[in-house]
Design goal:
Length: 262
């Protein structure tokens, strides 16, 4: 009786069984078998979709981000439900916000005392959807028009009810029909590195005027500006550019002390 031969056969059989078992375990990764059963064209489509989503998120994070307008505070310039395209490169290379620009900013510390609240996972999902304009932005994000920059003296109102910047009255043709420039009188000097911002629908806008008595006085730090809203991209019937209005063209330059000169 060839005992060695029998033992060798048993050893080889055992090794084969182990190999098969190891191979079967290696493919028991959740979803892997299903993915491998997909035709090559399907796998390519999934890969392409993943790449497109990644590129879109990167583009939205650093170049242009769609921003869903949540309210009517900027009517008639923008309406609730509009998607504006926010240019994140507008102020990246030395040029700061200018009077008349429509900007999106993080109001934490100026309009809102604390940061976003709620479930962090839900917040992350919402942030991702907001990054492509599918959901409302964070509760700390706002869209307003810059009325005064660092050093400017902004007052309301002159004898004709107009806002003045450094002594020059501003013709605000973009205001909501029937709105006064402001029902609240004010006379402020904007600190350097900050902005005085207001909504175009003055009677339906919580803006710098509403935070005068709070820390920061309603002034938004320039480094909290996310970008400049340059276009309305959706709906297609409202496709347009958001140009800087000419009403600020004749406003004199202000000095750091808040005094102006022509």
């Amino acid at each position: 009786m060839d005992t060695d031969g029998q033992l060798s056969e048993r050893d080889r059989s055992s090794a084969l069984d182990e190999g098969c078992e190891q191979r079967s375990r290696s493919v028991r990764i959740p979803g892997k078998e299903r993915l491998l059963r997909l035709p090559r064209r399907g796998r390519r489509a999934l890969l392409l979709a993943g790449v497109c989503v990644t590129v879109l998120m990167l583009f939205s994070s650093y170049v242009v981000q769609p921003f869903l307008i949540p309210s009517g505070s900027m009517e008639p310039t923008t309406r609730a439900g509009d998607r504006v395209l926010v240019n994140k490169l507008a102020y990246r290379f030395g040029d700061g916000p200018r009077r008349g620009d429509v900007v999106v900013f993080d109001g934490t510390g100026s309009f809102v005392r604390g940061g976003p609240t709620g479930n962090p996972v839900t917040g992350l999902l919402r942030k991702g959807a907001a990054a492509v304009g599918l959901a409302e932005p964070d509760e700390t994000d706002y869209i307003k028009r810059v009325t005064g920059v660092g050093g400017d003296r902004v007052t309301c109102c002159d004898e004709r009810g107009r806002i003045t910047v450094n002594g020059e009255a501003v013709d605000e043709h973009y205001l909501h029909p029937g709105d006064a420039p402001s029902q609240v009188p004010f006379d402020i000097v904007v600190p350097e590195g900050r902005l005085w911002v207001m909504g175009d629908h003055r009677s339906d806008s919580r803006d710098s005027r509403d935070h005068l008595g709070e820390p920061g006085g309603g002034m938004v730090p320039v480094d909290r500006v996310i970008g400049r809203a340059d276009w309305i991209g959706w709906p297609l019937g409202r496709l347009t550019t958001l140009d800087r209005p000419a009403g600020f063209d004749h406003v004199p330059t202000a000095s750091a002390q808040g005094r102006w000169h022509g």
